[in-house]
Specification:
The protein has three helices and four strands. The chain has 77 residues and is an alpha+beta fold. β1, α1 and β2 form a beta-alpha-beta unit. The longest helix is centred in the N-terminal third of the chain and has 17 residues.
Length: 77
């Protein structure tokens, strides 16, 4: 599983990344956390408002710093 953090590297993006790392750890799942900072790539994924969270290339949420529990729910699928 690849969890992608979509954004320029702003404070909100960094908080989302930290929350995603904690969610992955809490669920004990084997997942790679990848940062996507290329705005062209982010826009190709259909994201116009950052930060965004994608799982295996599928955008799950944009424009909000998700909490650890919200990310856990997404990852549980």
């Amino acid at each position: 599983m690849v969890v992608q953090i979509l954004g320029s590297g702003c404070a909100s993006c960094k908080r989302l990344e930290a929350n995603a790392r904690e969610a992955v750890k809490n669920l004990s799942i084997d997942a790679e956390i990848a940062k996507v900072q290329d705005m062209d790539k982010i826009m190709e994924m259909g994201v116009m408002i950052t930060p965004g969270l994608a799982v295996d290339g599928e955008v799950k949420k944009t424009g909000k710093v998700l909490s650890v529990s919200e990310i856990e729910e997404i990852l549980k699928g």
